[in-house]
Amino acid sequence: xxxxxxxxxxxxxxxxxxxxxxxxxxxxxxxTDLVIEALKLGYRLVDCxxxxxxxxxxxxxxxxxxxxxxxxxxxxxVTSKLWNTNHHPKHVRQAFERTLKDLQLDYLDLYLIHFPIxxxxxxxxxxxxxxxxxxxxxxxxxxxxxxxxxxKAMEELVDAGLVKNIGISNFNGGLLMDxxxxxxIKPSVLQIEHSPYLTQERLVNYAKSQGLAVTGYSNFSNLxxxxxxxxxxxxxxxxxxxxxxxxxxxYNKSPAQIVxxxxxxxxxxxxxxxxxxxxxxxxxxxxxxxxTQEELHKISSLNANMRFNDPGNYAxxxxxx
Length: 321
Fold this sequence. Notes:
By secondary structure, the protein is α/β, with parallel strands linked by helices. It contains 12 helices and 10 strands. The protein has helices spanning about 30-40, 55-65, 90-105, 145-160, 175-180, 200-210, 230-235, 240-250, 255-265, 275-280, 295-300, 310-315, and strands at about 5-10, 15, 20, 45, 75-80, 110-115, 165-170, 190-195, 215, 270. The strands form 2 sheets. The chain has an 8-stranded parallel sheet with strand order 3-4-5-6-7-8-9-10. β6, α4 and β7 form a beta-alpha-beta unit. The longest helix has 15 residues, at about 90-105. The protein is globular and about 55 Å long. The N and C termini lie far apart (about 40 Å).
């Protein structure tokens, strides 16, 4: 459990842990304890977002961890994300400073554009976590803010010493190519939905070829979405796939550990979460075995381009079409 491999980010050279704990869908009343437990188990990356609505509780946990000597600030890597309603340059720093205050930190290690979608500004105090529209509007309202303006404001956060690395999330290949043409400070990380059902190999390979590290979220595919994405219920459970079950038996590991190993062995960072202590510990315990290239290929062959976090389905914003 002591192993904590990292990947060096470009252009800064800062090390980012390959295994972190994600905070999406973590209830507010569970967030503080989960972060403390994860840090005690050896996690050194915490993946947050203002949209998750639990950054204040995470901040309480981080302060407690520092005060009690569980970790030092310089020994952990904290990520957060700019929400869609704050894309206008005049709102980027405001949103960032709110996140910084909530997390009780002086700087972030990584700040991502959460989606390549600019929405009408909404006062953060008036917006509930996960909402894609102004509560007073009947429909989602976009805003005419091009990504290059938002990115320039992100770069200014680096210039001000507020964040060490900046990056993007949920961008497709075309938008990444465009961003690389004008970025003064290149994106360090691309965070995408990534599972054996959605390998996105061409995008992953292109991002790596351009010097970006890749973080995959929702590695367990539909398991994270059953209950609010209709087609998640209809998809076969990833852990029931014969190849996953076979490898779990061969290596005496859980199906989840096999899937996570498939990610990190291919140099894709992961941010799984669990409210269960044993599973939280298991998610890090994946460095005492190696899958063969053939086994990696067999898992990748499950790809069905099956995406669940698609704003085209739940917000009528077809960014992946």
